[in-house]
Design a protein that fits this description.
There is one protein chain. The chain has about 425 residues and is mainly alpha-helical. Helix content is about 75%, strand content about 0%. It has a single domain, classed as Amino acid/polyamine transporter I (Up-down Bundle), CATH 1.20.1740.10.
Length: about 425
């Protein structure tokens, strides 16, 4: 592997044009895949002529939409600063696949076809509105955060071109919107499979290269505390935070929840379990790149991109960057598909039609692009508010699943408290 990815053989990958070529090829293939006939049912429900997706289509779609470019970066950054504890903290969030599968099974048992319908059955319009307001923020954060990663990548690739980040955000945002709008959820599922396959190949090659490197040691990884001056302590605190959110986090993730209702129960159960196993491996593996950077002693530069550029040869660095781009695009199309269903099927703003679904997608993309212009572009900020606010769902669901009853006034106060608290926590940092 070291021979295959040697600097001499892979030197052409150091040219940023190679990255542009990769993006053009994957974007073109995604557009070709999306070029099929589409119906209202396939656009919103993901069913091709009434046929539900296969098990592995569900699994790969779940994984690739949860292996966000933002998540990969965050796992690596936490690994760099807090060592094993930091990477484990972010990996623990992926227990959400197991809790998400449990939530979906309970909701389906009560004959509801979505989280919104389940909440509406218990708390009426108030419950539906409060939950959907959170989902709007969640979807916008998905679009925004992944666009930011795209900008970071191209800014690092073309450091002498000051507008490279902004231009790449606009171009790839439009490309993602084009193929997503062509077929909605059905296209999102299909492109997710392709994009996940690409991701697994390039990530596996880079991972194997790292673990067989002369300076790699599993013992060092397991004992790593990171470069943060407080060592691993904050990392273990983050583990506790993750465990607090693993029940509410999937419940407010529309991409995961949407895929929990498009196939039969047995297939859905298996898809969540397999998605948990595969995504856990991927996110922990990517976090190890951050840990390794800290162990070797490289300086933190430009969201780890500069660090990796110095750590690895052009071959591995190219593969890491490509994996980030693929994950960003796969998350974008899934978020846009969920935004169409949210606006049409839950808010009932427009009639259910392909045209109106595309309008909804375009609106969410426009706002996502707009948010990239704001001064604060932290990847952690993008989900801080929704991640904290969603915690109000945990007591609501636990009590309800156990047969208890929550009055609407108590539900509303709980939602308002967590919503307001999350904003206060976010603002207090500045």
């Amino acid at each position: 592997m070291n021979f295959i990815l040697s600097e001499n053989k892979m030197s052409f990958l150091a040219n940023p044009i190679a990255l542009v070529i990769f993006v053009m090829i994957t974007g073109f293939i995604s557009l070709i895949i999306s070029n099929r006939s589409v119906t209202v049912e396939s656009f919103f429900d993901g069913k091709d002529v009434g046929v539900e997706p296969s098990l592995w289509t569900l699994v790969l779609s779940q994984v690739t939409t949860w292996i966000f470019a933002r998540s990969l970066m965050n796992a690596a950054i936490l690994g760099f600063f807090y060592g094993l504890a930091g990477t484990l903290a972010y990996t623990f969030y992926y227990i959400s696949f197991l809790t998400g599968g449990f939530i979906v099974a309970r909701i389906r048992k009560e004959k509801a076809n979505s989280v919104q319908q389940w909440i509406r059955n218990y708390f009426g319009r108030v419950g539906s509105w409060t939950y959907n307001s959170l989902i709007v923020m969640r979807l916008l954060s998905e679009v925004f955060a992944n666009l930011i990663v795209i900008g970071l990548i191209f800014s690092a690739a073309f450091p002498d071109f000051k507008m490279s980040g902004q231009i790449s955000i606009i171009i790839l945002g439009i490309v993602g919107l084009l193929y997503s709008a062509k077929g909605g959820l059905q296209v999102s599922l299909r492109t997710d499979v392709f994009q996940m396959a690409v991701f697994l190949v390039i990530f596996s090659i880079a991972f194997i290269y790292m673990i067989f490197g002369s300076d790699f040691s599993f013992n060092s990884i397991l004992q790593s505390t990171g470069v943060h001056e407080q060592a691993a302590r904050p990392g273990y605190v983050l583990i506790y935070v993750a465990l607090l959110q693993v029940f509410s986090y999937p419940a407010h993730d529309p991409v995961m929840m949407d895929r929990g209702f498009i196939a039969n129960q047995n297939k859905t159960n298996y898809s969540f379990i397999l998605a948990f196993l595969l995504s856990t491996f991927c996110i922990f593996g990517f976090g190890m790149f951050g840990i390794q950077a800290g162990l070797i002693g490289y300086a933190y530069e430009n969201q780890l991109l500069g660090t990796w550029q110095n750590m690895f040869g052009p071959g591995v660095y190219f593969l890491l960057i490509c994996s980030l781009l693929v994950s960003a695009m796969s998350t974008l199309d899934s978020a846009l598909a969920s935004s169409a269903r949210l606006v049409i099927d839950e808010f009932y703003i427009f009639k259910r039609s392909i045209k109106n679904g595309r309008i909804a997608m375009s609106t969410f993309m426009a706002f996502g692009l707009l948010f990239t212009l704001f001064p604060s572009q932290s990847l952690f900020d993008a989900v801080a508010v929704t991640g904290t606010a969603s915690m109000f769902l945990t007591p609501v669901m636990i009590v309800t699943f156990l047969g208890g009853k929550i009055p609407i006034w108590a539900y509303t106060i709980t939602w308002f408290f967590f919503y307001d608290w999350s904003f206060c926590l976010h603002i207090s940092r500045y």
